[in-house]
Specification:
By secondary structure, the protein is mostly helical. It has 4 domains: 140 residues, no CATH class; 101 residues, Serine Threonine Protein Phosphatase 5, Tetratricopeptide repeat (Alpha Horseshoe); 102 residues, Serine Threonine Protein Phosphatase 5, Tetratricopeptide repeat; 127 residues, no CATH class. The chain contains 29 helices and 6 strands. A 6-stranded mixed beta sheet has the order 2-1-3-4-5-6, covered by helices on one side. A hairpin with a 2-residue loop joins strand 1 and strand 2. The chain is elongated. The termini are far apart.
């Protein structure tokens, strides 16, 4: 910069032709704005002091601020406004792309829309490069409908555009839409890259679509798409979330180099499957490989302690994390509360919550309330419920949980009061929803919903299941049904739980040794858990159920969770 400033002084003290002066200043501005050893603030001052700076100079400063690590990215937008107010020179495609990048980084939705409006008014709409950029901008701002509208208007969609759309859907948990877009991309003859395939694999993980995920993996190999660390990690996550933890480990072992994300993904995979010994062994391997464990790796270790009810191990791992200087997140605190609650150490759990240096989030209070529900602890339960409703007064899940707490304690009048509050506020809980993949198609079932085209056949299978269960002396556990109604009505409600519909469909459409794999959006209730164990023995089928927290592998009448979940 010192030498550059000398050159700048030399230029100003010489009577250079105007065109030469402008050209020279534009080069200085560009270097100051974009060079790693430059000075973006010096470039900005020079831009506004230079006589009639060209668009190259404006673009350099706008781009420089969007890349700057020390200066505010929002300055890119401010400089663009100054350019528009001056009216000369006219912005070009690069100007708009650079300012849009700044809007994307800041997720400045309104400013990005203003840029979009400028593009339309000034005839830049035909630029496929800008259109693809706007798809990315709206997806980044989680305005997926705007992204889709722009995407649909692109006459010739390139691989950037397709990848951005698929990635946007996947990040917003719109997994079906991501896979549909990938299918359309193939029909259009556009070959995906490793970034696109990572998003596709992530969508398969979210849906629990193992068949599609395996097909995508084979497609990657067939097309010789580079399997980088990010894509390998996505495959590990997909296989783990689809219930194939052995295949996830196989992908992990094949990786030539493993970053912290790969290690932690494999550790989390083992944890949600309840393989505590594998978690601890892999964590030791990670440390032995000179890879520093990150927050996610420790979260996996603590989850293993949760599912294994390993209190002493949980305390030890917590202390180890603090010794390494890793700051616990609220998820780590939630795990410790869960560990204490599962061991019936309620006083310790409550003290731990009260001594947290950060504000306990609703998940922690819900965890504590669930423990109080299981033990019918009215005093501590009502303390937790008060904190929960204060922190999230508009979340229907909290009211539903409190209602089930009172139902478990046979406090029907209090339960009715909570239900009335929900009705008065127009609250509706998220219904239980389960999905099962058969022949590459995802079939979804919702609690009490018989709209499936094969519902009559499903009823017949459910009838056969119930008949076999009754012959073995099965008696429904109606304690988890939240209605103050007769037991017969409660039994009927249990039979319509979404995972039972999905399992019945799996029995109807597949034969052993095909594994029945079900993904559920909520936790599995006690009665459905017991019923699924019996079904696995009676029908001699392996059933894998992924609920909101972990996996359950039912084989021969027992579950991998050992009835701890």
């Amino acid at each position: 910069m010192r030498v550059l400033q000398q050159i700048h002084s030399y230029i100003l003290t010489r009577s250079l032709p105007f065109s030469t002066l402008c050209f020279s200043l534009s080069k200085i501005i560009s270097h100051c704005a974009l060079s790693p050893v430059g000075n973006i603030l010096y470039a900005e001052r020079l831009l506004f002091q230079a006589p009639n700076p060209n668009i190259f100079s404006w673009n350099s400063v706008i781009r420089g601020f969007s890349k700057s690590q020390i200066s505010p990215t929002s300055q890119s937008i401010s400089i663009f406004r100054s350019l528009i107010r001056r009216g000369c020179p006219n912005p070009n495609t690069y100007t708009l792309a650079f300012v849009l990048k700044a809007c994307m980084i800041l997720q400045a939705f309104q400013e990005g829309q203003q840029v979009h409006s400028y593009v339309i008014r000034h005839g830049f709409s035909s630029s496929s490069f800008l259109q693809s950029s706007f798809v990315g901008f709206y997806a980044k701002c989680e305005e997926i409908m705007f992204a889709r509208k722009v995407f649909d208007e692109i006459p010739e969609r390139n691989m950037i555009a397709w990848s951005t759309m698929i990635s946007g859907y996947a990040k917003l948990d719109m997994f079906s839409e991501a896979l549909d877009s990938f299918i359309s991309m193939q029909k259009a003859g556009v070959v995906p890259d490793e970034v696109t395939m990572a998003s596709v694999i992530s969508a398969c993980a979210g849906l629990g679509a193992l068949d599609v995920g395996q097909w995508a993996h084979a497609y990657i190999k067939k097309r010789s798409i580079a399997i980088d660390t990010k894509l390998s990690t996505a495959l590990i996550n997909m296989y783990a979330k689809c219930g194939c933890i052995e295949k996830a480990r196989e992908v992990f072992d094949e990786m030539p180099a493993k970053d912290p994300q790969a290690w932690s993904s494999m550790i989390i995979g083992f944890a949600i499957h309840g393989h505590a010994d594998d978690v601890f062994s892999l964590f030791a391997d990670m440390e032995g490989s000179q890879v520093k464990p990150n927050q996610v790796a420790f979260l996996g270790v603590l989850l293993a302690c949760v599912h294994g009810q390993l209190v002493s191990e949980g305390r030890r791992r917590w202390a180890s994390m603090l010794e390494l200087g890793i700051e616990p997140s609220v998820e780590h605190y939630s795990c410790m509360v869960d560990i204490f609650c599962r061991a019936n150490l309620f006083e310790e759990a409550y003290t731990f919550i009260r001594n947290m240096p950060i504000e306990p989030d609703p998940v922690i209070w819900r965890t504590f309330l669930v423990a109080c529900k299981k033990n019918k602890d009215m005093v501590r339960g009502e303390i937790a419920s008060q904190q929960l409703l204060e922190s999230e007064p508009s979340n229907p899940e909290n009211y539903a949980l409190l209602s089930s707490f009172y139902a478990a304690c046979s406090e029907w009048s209090k339960m009715g009061h909570i239900r009335k509050q929900m009705r008065d506020k127009g609250m509706k809980t998220v219904p239980g929803c389960s999905s099962i993949e058969v022949d590459g198609f995802i079939n979804e079932f919702v609690l009490g919903d018989w709209s499936h085209p094969e519902s009559n056949e499903i009823r017949e299978v459910l009838g056969d299941i119930l008949k076999r269960l009754n012959s073995l002396g099965y008696r429904p556990d109606v304690s988890g049904v939240l209605h103050d109604v007769e037991d017969e009505a409660k039994k009927e409600a249990l039979c319509e739980h979404s995972e039972r519909l999905a399992i019945a469909y799996g029995i109807m459409k597949t034969k052993a040794p095909v594994v029945i794999r079900v993904v559920k959006n909520l936790r599995v209730c006690d009665d459905c858990h017991e019923v699924t164990k019996i079904i696995s023995a009676v029908y001699e089928r392996e059933i894998v159920v992924r609920d909101r927290v972990r996996f359950h592998r039912f084989v021969g009448g027992s579950c991998s969770c050992k009835d701890i979940w």
